[in-house]
Amino acid sequence: MEDTSKNFIENFIDEDIAEGGRFAGMKVHTRFPPEPNGYLHIGHCKALIIDFGTAEKYGGLCNLRMDDTNPAKEDTEYVDAIQEDIHWLGFDWGDRFFYGSDYFEQTYEFAIELIKKGLAYVCELSPEQFKEYRGDTTKPAISPYRDRPIEESLDLFERMKNGEFPEGKYTLRAKIDLASGNFNMRDPVLYRIRYIEHHRQGTKWCIFPMYDFAHPIQDALEGITHSLCSLEYEDHRPLYDWVINNVSVPSKPRQIEFARLGINYTVLSKRKLRRLVEEGYVSGWDDPRMPTLCGLRRRGYTPASIRNFCERIGVNKVPSTVEFPFLEHCLREDLNDHAPRAMAVLRPVKLTIVNYPEGVSEELEIENNPNDPDAGTRKVSFSRELYIEAEDFLETPIPKYKRLYPDGPECRLKGAYLIKCLGCVKDENGNVTEILASYDPESRGGDPADGRKIKGATIHWVDAANCCDAEIRLYGNLFSDSDPDAADKDYLSCLNPDSLEILQNCKLEKMLESAVAPAQYQFLRSGYFCVDSKDSTPEHLVFNRAVSLKDGFKK
Ligand code: ATP
Ligand code: MG
């Protein structure tokens, strides 16, 4: 019976375990195979949480393997960053860290085995001819070199390896089925000649295996039981199985595919993300607007929020696009429980309590987190001059405005006192420079002594005599189009010009003066903020808004 509390991958694994067979006596063993040509993004996160998470659930193991089979641009910077990101999410590969290129020697030997079995041959069609001879759904492919004698193929393949031929002159192809309805099975190329330096192998090799040949071999050599990958490999599975069944690898892994993650208002492709970095559209891979793990981390995302997001979107076979606000929703939930509260005034204006004694200050006790009874309280200083948000005062109120205006309603200063607005002071240009109010000395803590009803809003504040300054960065979507990744769109022209707003001279509670990354807070009424891990210093504090308070996610 299918267990509906499990996803389809787990159901397959359960079947495999129940059957015994090729997995008898083996622990569930998966792998995560990133290509080290960029930083991990939230899409990779889905894959790695499935890989590491599935192994974890079954008490098995998950290897980390850098898929560097393709000798393209690869960098140790990426290798290090990938490891850091996976550790940050809370997963570990133990001592099972590998490179696909470490298996080049064995892969080469397996290719020779196939030639000797009459299952592979050296072909000399040019890339153009190859395309021309591919056939179509009604016509099989044509492969004129298919029946080349084994000895001749062995000789040519060795000479390909020895660098005797130019790029494109020869390929090694599997001999499978030229009439197959699956074009991947029409004698696919297994090896090609490339004169390009490999980041680990140097110039040792000038022939490189194709992913479809290398990957199943790497999986089998590592004893992987379940090779979980995204849906675009589904049509390649027959080839995966063919390789596993025709070379003498020590085990027979099973490939299972799941749908890729797509998120609206962003792009999830390393190539596109790299271009944003290289052409300066963002400040780097870790720009807090990027959907990379390092970007999300710097923005203030927690491992728990990302893991929870990936759990909840589930593992499915059908591609779908998840709403960005759902990712934000998951972060908000986590921070709502865990982030201590603080007061910060983003766009400050001075407020003077005219009947509060001059030169005096007092300490008020304010709750750190109403959702967490263990979070306790903190002391916040209060005096005659405060800062409040400029938008909490209007000289002429608009309908339903319940904040400060002359002769307006009594308002509550969060955790402090009740005040009434008396008026304001303006400069020669007519700009409000100071708001004047009186307070009720009997309302310490914020509640009236006589129980009267308070009609005005509760507003946040900081003590002007005892606060600190900070730069605060507010982020919006990186793209203003909901589907910048669509094939028919130039994603660069979809960039949102207003995705970053920088506020200077924001006024924060004094205790935030010593905040260092990755500290996170809920700034009352404004959102969740974290100390910027790169640019914040004790002399110049920088906070990022991770997410606003208002939930844009509609269930
Ligand atoms: P990109 O297009 O971003 O370069 P990729 O597939 O080439 O993606 P890899 O480094 O090869 O990147 O990916 C490592 C693993 O992550 C692969 O198993 C791949 O299937 C998976 N993966 C990549 N993007 C996504 C995504 N959006 N959703 C789910 N899995 C993904
Ligand atoms: Mg890839």
Would you spell out the secondary-structure blueprint of this structure?
Layout: H1 8-19, E1 29-32, H2 42-57, E2 61-66, H3 76-89, E3 97-99, H4 104-116, E4 120-123, H5 127-132, H6 150-161, E5 171-174, E6 189-193, E7 207-209, H7 211-221, E8 226-230, H8 237-246, E9 254-258, E10 261-263, H9 270-278, H10 293-299, H11 303-313, E11 320-322, H12 324-338, E12 341-342, E13 344-345, E14 348-353, E15 361-367, E16 377-383, E17 385-389, E18 411-413, E19 418-426, E20 432-439, E21 458-459, E22 462-463, E23 467-475, E24 500-509, E25 520-523, E26 527-531, E27 541-547
Parallel strand pairs: 1-2, 2-3, 8-9, 10-11, 12-25, 14-20, 18-21, 23-27
Antiparallel strand pairs: 4-5, 5-6, 6-7, 13-24, 14-17, 15-16, 17-22, 18-19, 19-20, 23-24, 25-26, 26-27
Helix pairs in contact: 2-11, 7-8, 11-12
Bound molecules: adenosine-5'-triphosphate and magnesium ion.
The site of adenosine-5'-triphosphate has 15 residues, from helix 2 and strand 8.
